[in-house]
Amino acid sequence: MKVTVEWIKEFVASEASAEEIGDTLTMLGIELEGIADSPLGAVLDFKVTPNRGDCLSVIGIARELAAKDAIRFSPTELFVRAAKGFPRGDENQLLADARVDIEAPDLCHRFTARRWDDVRVVPSSEKLQARLSACGMRPINVVVDASNYVMLELGQPLHTFDFDLLREHRIVVRRAGGNANFKTLDDLERKLSPDMLMICDGVGPVAIAGVMGGANSEVSESTTRLLLESAHFDPSSIRSTRKQLGMSTEASYRFERYVDPEGTLRAENRFAEILESETGVAPVAGIIDLYPNKRLRQPILVREARWDRLLGMEVPRAVAASSLIALGFEVNETDDGLSASAPSWRSDIRREDDLVEEIGRLWGYDRIPEALPTGATMGGEDDEPNFYSICRNGMLRMGFTEVLNHTLSDESPLDIRSERVRMRHPQAPELALLRSSMLPGVAQAVARNRGRDLQLFEVGRVFHGEHEFTMLGFAMTGRLLEEDWCDPASPKADFFSAKGVIESLATMIQRNILFRESDDPRFHPGRRGTIVTESESIGDFGEVLPEIAAKLDLPKGCVIAELDLTALFRAPVSECLYKPISHFPPVRRDFSMTISKSVPFKDIESAVRGSASELAERIWPISTYEGKGIEPGTHALAVGLILRHPDRTLTDEEANAICEQAWRTLIRLGATRR
Amino acid sequence: MKEIEAVEERAQLEIEKATSTKELRDIEVRYLGRSGELTGLLRQVGSLPTDQKPLFGKAVNEAKSRLQEAIDLRESALRAEEEAKQFAQEKVDLTMPGRKVRVGLPHVLSQTIDRVKRVMIGLGFRYTEGPELEEVRYNFAALNYPPDHPAMDDQDTFYIDDDRLLRTQCTAIQGRTFERMKPPLRVFTIGRCFRNEAVDRTHGHTFMQVDAFMIDEGISMAHLRGTLGAFARAMFGPEMTVRFRPDFFPFVEPGVDFAITNPFKHRGGGDWMEIGGAGLIHPNILDAYGIDTEKYSGFAFGLGIERICMTQYGIDDLRLFFDNDLRFLEQFPG
Hints:
heterodimer, A: 674 residues, alpha+beta, Phenylalanyl-tRNA Synthetase, Chain B, domain 1, Phenylalanyl-tRNA Synthetase, Chain B, domain 3, seven-stranded mixed β-sheet, 33 strands, B: 334 residues, BirA Bifunctional Protein, domain 2, 2 domains, two-stranded antiparallel ribbon, 9 strands
């Protein structure tokens, strides 16, 4: 809210500078966002929190200043008159020739009206215009300007009708009841909904209550008779209406944040005063004031022991009492503290701790000392997030760099789950869906760094139907080690690089991972795999399908993988147990063969293992070769075997016997010795 | 005997002149080897008169051991020379770059998160996590937001449907925690939050937030300030202090925003770094979860990871965090 310093000083007498006023209010919780210059001097711009609708006014700001620092900010005569309601003396007289009915007292708690005859709708005075302009409002004519002026000064939005355009000279406050269109005074057709609170005349709507007036009853230059509305509306009704209409006005902004229901008449009187001083025209004597829903304020007890304990500092009872009184509370002392009734403009004060806050806020939070809580609690981390940290660190240990991608995402050929979660009101395609796969993100990071040798990963949440879980995604492309002058020909990342990473990760996180054939269309049909635990499928990996790679600007041969870490967290843990180390020498034997490529290595391995049983320390493929000299469909394969006995040295004869037995099985598989 | 002396003298001369260990090895063989000259002299013993035999033998053996000693001495000198030469030949160019090692780098935001996590665990808080796709009630109603209140306007929300949204604040874990844990408790989380905001250098629709809270007997604003002070000092050094200003969040009463001494003031900026909101947990929330407000009170605070990270490293554009340009990420090797 913008307000000039000179206007504030009409309500509190003070020598304080604009900056000092701004600082004082900021330390009270009404944050100064900026200071600007104007023909009337400094303009302060405050950010008022939504619980403090009362501070969306000059008088509210002035009241805070006076309450905080009575020495530097003392209330002026104007402030005192405002507190008395700018009385005119005709408040007990009923306004003639007009009628108001409130048919929705649950939404309109009070409606006050005054009337003027013989008004002249002319431009307002320079002084009025200057203040409005400095506070960011455009001067229009004296009627509109005076109502805006009162709204800024007292916080009460006002609305003026051309009385002669009100059919039957009557106001009915009721719900719209239907879905009619209604033209507001900005000349836009608004679609009403049945629950919206409307101000109607004897025939139909003339204003959207608390939001904006209608074009059909607008004050114009030809207006001679005015009806002034000053009302209190239910905040959440106003909020719901203006949200449905997709609009916000100075009036609705204030009504949503609670306008003082006791201030409606005061605002009418102030308007009368301003209009009289501007144009010399006084209102018709008498008022209409319907107040069907008066809120009774109950005193709240606040114990001194409680405010001392919660604030962590002692605030003398007398100080607490005078702070609350200055803020407009009615205060009585009790045996153990105070009893305070909140002023009508403070809807945020509901229980004891709300008063504790007021007492602390005015005494000053800078007086709160630092203390550490005593009592012991165990710091630590829940098992599940800790497991994800271990996975993340595992990837870092393997030389992968961490990237972060957005949860909100677009369609992608790499994200193909059927039940993706969709935003209710997507604002842009790239914000329309929640990711259900980590692959688009890591692929995008690869494309972002095109031309480099990359090993990238991300751990994050994905969403599928009703499920939210944590996944790891990684991508590898180019050389495994970055090019350097010592060894320019480092091997390149391929399918088996990715498989190796998955296997190493499984070891680090002590989970048993297996691989199955995959039919995932995102990958090269010959270079892909599904990652499984004993009970479920937990991920996919492989070389990106060339067509998709081209579309996403990925280098050829880029391998990507994703693993469901939440499923892995739940999977059984492989126990980590010490095994004694044998002190006897190993025996190595190599098997060199040609064999059909359709025989999986797993079968060859188990043939060798079958004969060696417990003595086999390691079995591994040394090399494969196909091409010249090798029959098509077969390959030359060398397999290494390391044998070791736990308790003695193995003899050559024993090793040879094992080998011969292995060879017999291998030959049955179709192998030929080379 | 003269012969022995002559041979020894010749050998000593050759040893001195030897220029390599290989040459020395030849000399050794030539004089001391099985068919070497001195060894050959020893064979003459048989043809000598009996009384001279022991003397001659002794003289030869003595000459042999003197020569051996000379050879060893010369050898170690020559070896040192040769090694030095070898080393000189093998000398590297120290200015050539080292071989590349592939080091995995944690993301710069993760680095800040990891530090915050260590400090909070050190302060006795337990790290837990909640869903990013949250139930509307945990995000708002459970945090004392009245229905349809303008406080929600601060947080333009991504709704999935009437019951689900992307959490706008990690504080949403509070209700979930109070359902499963009883005080005393100290709990915190760090995670993604989402707000439907236009994206620019300082605003994003996604950001990382730390949210922490504790409940125990007699917890006060002083404990809040002390804990934040301890946190700030662990993060940024012993001179950190905490400033409170009143602020409003529906889930705390009293509510404050807090700033810490700006540890990076030397790089410009104000005296204070405003990093979060805090306060005592609203008694309405404690009531709702059956926690006796006469016995217990608690505090809660939340702060933004990006703000800390950006200030620490002088990063001026929030969008870089999710851009994944290695030229950015590699500047923070962790």
